[in-house]
Design brief:
The chain is α+β, with helices and mostly antiparallel strands. It is 47% helix and 31% strand. The chain has 1 helix and 2 strands. The radius of gyration is 16 Å and the shape is elongated. The N and C termini lie far apart (62 Å). It comes from Candidatus Methylobacter titanis.
Length: 55
Amino acid sequence: MASDTRNRSKEQQITEISDQIASILQEIKFGSIEIIIHDNKVVQIERKEKLRFDI
């Protein structure tokens, strides 16, 4: 039973991380996304966006 709760929580975390990445991908025009992983877990997502101007 406890492992079911942990698995559901892990699935929810994976869904939340996936949603965050998808949201960033939809919003960013130029730049990069870096996903930091420690011990098989996503611990940080970095977004670097470039603004380009036609002058």
